[in-house]
Design goal:
Elements: E1 5-6, H1 21-25, H2 32-36, H3 38-43, H4 50-62, H5 69-76, H6 94-104, E2 108-109, H7 110-121, E3 130-133, H8 139-147, E4 151-153, H9 159-164, H10 169-181, E5 185-188, E6 201-204, E7 209-212, E8 218-221, H11 228-237, E9 244-246, H12 254-259, H13 261-274, E10 279-282, H14 285-291, E11 297-299, E12 304-306
Parallel strand pairs: 3-4, 3-5, 5-6, 8-9, 8-10, 10-11
Antiparallel strand pairs: 1-2, 7-12
Helix pairs in contact: 4-6
Bound molecules: iron/sulfur cluster (SF4) (2 copies).
Length: about 300
C-alpha cells in the first residue's frame, strides 16, 4: 500500500543537495555501509541501506529520479545514527547527504507533519533564572528540575523538525521566551542541543552530576551519534566500574519511531538483547522512553547525584 504524504510544507529554496554532488560521486558502491545499518539489516531492501539512500540522492540531484512516496519513505527511514559513516572507506558524510536530501524534499510523511505541528504548538510558561530544557514530559524532568532549583521546559529544542529536514522555528521561539523571562542559565542534556544556546550560560546536565549510584551489573547505552567529548564525560561517571557500553541506535528518535514503529521496535529489541539480561542505563530520555517498553531500562538521570 502506498504511504500517504503531503507537500504543504515544501520549502521553496535552492537545493541543498547540490553542495554534496562531488561527495556523492566518491561513493564507490562497495556496500560496506550496508552491514552497519540496522534499518537495512531488518528490511533487507536496497533502498533502505545507506548506499541506497546515496543513490537516491544522486538520482534526485541529477533529475533521473522524481520524488514520490517511496523516495520520501526511503530517505526518512534512516535514524541518523551515523554507524554507516564509521565503516565507509571513502569517509563519506552519509548523514549530511541524507539530511540535505530531506531538506530538498517537497513532500512530508503524515507522521512527520503531525510531529511538526505538535512541536510548533508547544507552549508553556518559563519562570525563574535557571531553566532545564528537556524533550520529555516524563515526571523525572520535574524531579530533576526541583533538585537543580530550576524551572522545567518539556518541549525540547525542536531537533526532530531539523532531522525531518524542515526549518526549526521552535528553537528561535524558545530563545525569545528565555530572553523575555530573564533566564540566566540553561541546562540541557543531549549534546546536540548546545548549538541552540550560543551566547547563553548553557551547561550540560552531565557536568552537574557528582556521581552515579548504578548498583551491580548493567550495560550503558550511548547513541552512536553523540559527540566524543560528551561520551567521554559520561564514561568518566562510570569509571572504575565494570561496564559494558552499547553504542547502537535503538530507533528511539521520535520522528523515526512514530513513522517506522516496526523497525524501531526491532532495533530496540536488538539493544535489549545485547545487554545479556542486565539492566540498561540510557543517556537520553528519548531512548529511555522507547527502550523501557521492551526491557529493564533506566536513564542516567534516575541514578544521578548532583553537585551541591
Ligand atoms: S545513519 Fe544509521 S540508519 Fe541511517 S543509513 Fe546510516 S546506519 Fe543506516
Ligand atoms: S561504504 Fe561508503 S563508499 Fe561504500 S557504498 Fe557505502 S557510502 Fe558508498
Amino acid at each position: 500500500m502506498e504511504r500517504e504524504y503531503n507537500n504543504q510544507f515544501a520549502l521553496q529554496v535552492m537545493k541543498m543537495l547540490e553542495k554534496y554532488y562531488k561527495e556523492i560521486l566518491t561513493c564507490t558502491g562497495c556496500a560496506f555501509c550496508k552491514k552497519a545499518c540496522q534499518v537495512y539489516l531488518h528490511t533487507r531492501k536496497e533502498k533502505d541501506s545507506p548506499k541506497g539512500r546515496i543513490m537516491i540522492s544522486y538520482g534526485l540531484l541529477t533529475g533521473e529520479l522524481k520524488e514520490d512516496a517511496s523516495i520520501i519513505e526511503a530517505l526518512q527511514k534512516c535514524a541518523l545514527c551515523r554507524l554507516c559513516e564509521s565503516v565507509c572507506p571513502s569517509m563519506i558524510k552519509i548523514t549530511d547527504i541524507i539530511k540535505a536530501a530531506r531538506h530538498d524534499l517537497k513532500g512530508m510523511l503524515r507522521e512527520h507533519e503531525r510531529i511538526m505541528q505538535e512541536i510548533e504548538a508547544w507552549n508553556e510558561p518559563i519562570k525563574g533564572e535557571r531553566l532545564l530544557v528537556m524533550n520529555s514530559k516524563n515526571e523525572i524532568v520535574d524531579e530533576i528540575a526541583k533538585k537543580l532549583h530550576a524551572a522545567a521546559w518539556h518541549g525540547g529544542c525542536g531537533g526532530a523538525i531539523e532531522r525531518i529536514g524542515r526549518e526549526n522555528e521552535m528553537a528561535g521561539r524558545l530563545i525569545e521566551k528565555i530572553k523575555e523571562a530573564g533566564v540566566k542559565q540553561v541546562i540541557y542534556y543531549e549534546p546536540d542541543c548546545k548549538k541552540y544556546f550560543e551566547g547563553f550560560d548553557a551547561v550540560n546536565i552531565v557536568d552537574l552530576i557528582e556521581s552515579v549510584d548504578a548498583g551491580e551489573s548493567y550495560a550503558v547505552h550511548i547513541p552512536y551519534d553523540f559527540d566524543g567529548e560528551f561520551v567521554e564525560k559520561v564514561k568518566k561517571l562510570f569509571e572504575k566500574k565494570d561496564v559494558e557500553y552499547i553504542h547502537e541506535c535503538c530507533g528511539g528518535r521520535r520522528e523515526f519511531k512514530e513513522a517506522f514503529p516496526e523497525e524501531a521496535e526491532k532495533m530496540a529489541k536488538d539493544v535489549i538483547q545485547k545487554s545479556n539480561g542486565r539492566k540498561i542505563i540510557t543517556i537520553s530520555l528519548e531512548c529511555y522512553e522507547h527502550l523501557k517498553k521492551y526491557g529493564n531500562v533506566i536513564d542516567l538521570l534516575h541514578i544521578a547525584k548532583f553537585k551541591d
